[in-house]
Amino acid sequence: GHVDFAPRNEEEIALLRFLLQRYARVSWERVLSGKGLVNIYEFLIATGFGPERPEITSAMASQDPAAVVSNSGLKGDPVCRHALDIFVSLYGAQAGNLALVYRARGGVYVAGGIAPRIVPLLVEGSFLAAFRNKGRLSPVLDSIPIHVVTHPAPGILGAARVAADPSLL
Fold first, then answer.
1. How far apart are CA 37 and CA 166, in angstroms?
2. The pTM is what?
3. Alpha carbon distances (Å) from 155 to 33, 41, 98, 102, 143
4. Residues 16-51 pLDDT 10s
């Protein structure tokens, strides 16, 4: 998550410029995390994509802001939905990058706090399109299966498995 963010189009370049005003360095973590989703939302508000709705601002002050953006986007708020769309496309692009780097022929497992909550968006197409959009290497990615981890605590399960069988280390 701490490698350099690489925008792919004009909107993402504008997002990078926006984030460079806040941070000395912009990594993928700045766009692909809960705070990253909020950064994308704030970018859209700041650049005039749509108006900031008071009820969303109020909810973000008292609840997890990323959850507010996610839930509002899934319910149809246009700014939050566009933030989610950008997030999902970036998620797919970086997952595809990592699949190429690590030659993930056995599959890619998407996990984290946001992914299980936005499964409908992950299967709509922009995630997969961005995942596979790798020029002449796109055919390599066509054969890589993608799975969304929905268990709430996969790390604990993994740790328990290793504790039960230390030879796995």
1. 37
2. 0.92
3. 17, 29, 20, 21, 27
4. 999 999 999 999 999 999 999 999 999 999 999 999
